[in-house]
Write a structure and sequence with these properties.
SOS response; DNA replication; Glutathione S-transferase Yfyf (Class Pi), Chain A, domain 2; DNA replication and repair protein RecF; 2 domains; six-stranded mixed beta sheet; about 375 residues; binds adenosine-5'-triphosphate; Rossmann fold; alpha/beta; binds magnesium ion; six-stranded antiparallel beta sheet; P-loop_NTPase; 12 helices
């Protein structure tokens, strides 16, 4: 699928923007800081999911002094055109698809699929384990409601178990009560664990190819799911989990918290067998987190049947010119890409031949070349 046209009125620093000539392949938005590059990316994200990655308050996106903001997009998918309208009001928002009002936002969302890579996503590699667990949970959740159910059950039981552990330590409750929670924790925990394993396996295949392409075939990316109790595929996960819980029981009571389980797991990312978190250069960390996100594109394709639109905000800085070129070329082949940058140094050749280039200047845009 691809975004044919985008129109904005009173959105962020755009009083009025009309883009009727987007390329189904690569579109580069170039400009100095604070000109409105990320604002354009944000507007496309809004049309896709009706939520911003920068704020929870929709009214914040209405241009200073404006009353309401209007976002419109034309999406081509399955040989059909969809006209999307999103109207941001001081209180609430309204949406239409092909002129028909959608009263529930969930009926509006999903006509346009996007994958966004924003500078914050670098935390995927740099951040702590909880960042990577969250990544897994969000990505798996998008394609498996069953997973979200099992995960929320797990978290509920975990909370109850932890409360009970503290009560046992204070001698308010007896230890026997733990067994009920332990059993349930293991049932849901095993399901969460197995789904994550499966997903990481699938993701690795895609991410490895992408990483290899961006690095010019020089680097091998691999993942390892690190589980907090001893289990290998083929074994009964619930059983292994249960045994570990029993052996850690004393410790858990002492600490008042559950020391093993999927809530303590991590995803290790390696380049050429070395952990990127510890040993990777800035550029390698950026490339690796990018490859992880870009792998989503293939997962969505497998799920939805069409490639989503790729939004790359500020990813070029910190990639050398060779990686920049490989990235833009390999993505543009298959996927419509909207990419922002402050400098197109190194991309000149490519830009003249293949990409649409827009110069962004104080909330105004002009096509170059
Ligand atoms: N509601 C709003 N109304 C008007 N202007 C706004 C609004 N919200 C943000 N802005 C302005 O938009 C500008 C920032 O735009 P944006 O984040 O798109 O910049 P950018 O081009 O991505 O810059 P950088 O290269 O630094 O990332 C700021 O100058 C900010 O004041
Ligand atoms: Mg920006």
């Amino acid at each position: 699928m691809w975004l044919k046209a985008l129109e904005l009125r009173d959105f962020r620093n755009y009083e009025s923007l009309q883009l009727f000539d987007l390329s189904p392949r690569v579109n580069i938005f170039v400009g100095q800081n604070a000109q409105g590059k990320t604002n354009v990316i944000e507007s496309v994200l809004m049309l896709a999911v009706a939520k911003s990655h920068r704020t929870n308050r929709d009214a914040e996106m209405i241009r200073f002094g404006g009353e309401t903001a209007l976002l419109q997009g034309m999406v081509e998918r399955d040989n059909r055109t969809y006209k999307l309208d999103l109207h941001l009001l001081q209180k609430g928002k309204k949406s239409r698809v092909n002129g028909v009002e959608k009263r529930k936002m969930s009926d509006f969302v999903g006509h346009l699929n996007v994958v966004l890579f924003a500078p914050e996503d670098l935390q995927l590699i740099k951040g702590g384990p909880q960042t990577r667990r969250r990544f897994l949970d969000v990505e798996i959740g998008q394609v498996s409601p069953q997973y979200l159910y099992n995960l929320s059950q797990y978290q509920k039981v975990l909370l109850q178990r932890n409360t009970l552990l503290k009560e046992i330590a204070k001698k308010e409750k007896t230890e026997e009560l733990l067994s009920i929670w332990d059993e349930q924790l293991c049932v849901y925990g095993a399901k969460v664990l197995q789904k994550r394993f499966e997903f990481v396996d699938k993701l690795e295949g895609f991410a490895r190819d992408i990483h290899s392409r961006i690095s010019g075939g020089k680097e091998l990316l691999s993942f390892r799911y690190v589980n907090s109790f001893d289990w290998t595929e083929g074994q009964d996960a619930a059983d292994r989990f249960f045994q570990t819980l029993q052996s850690k029981r004393r410790l858990d009571i002492l600490r008042g918290t559950t020391s093993v389980g999927p809530h303590r797991d991590d995803l290790e990312v390696r380049i050429d067998e070395r952990e990127v978190h510890t040993y990777g250069s800035q550029g390698q960390q950026r490339t690796a987190s990018l490859s992880m996100k870009l792998a989503e594109i293939e997962l969505i394709k497998a799920e939805v049947g069409e490639y989503p639109v790729l939004l790359l905000d500020d990813v070029l800085s910190e990639l050398d010119s060779e990686r920049q070129l490989h990235l833009v070329e390999s993505m543009g082949e298959r996927v419509q890409t909207l990419i922002t940058t402050t400098s197109t140094y190194g991309l000149e050749q490519f830009m003249q031949e293949e990409a649409h280039v827009y110069r962004v200047d104080h909330g105004a845009m002009s096509r170059e070349g």
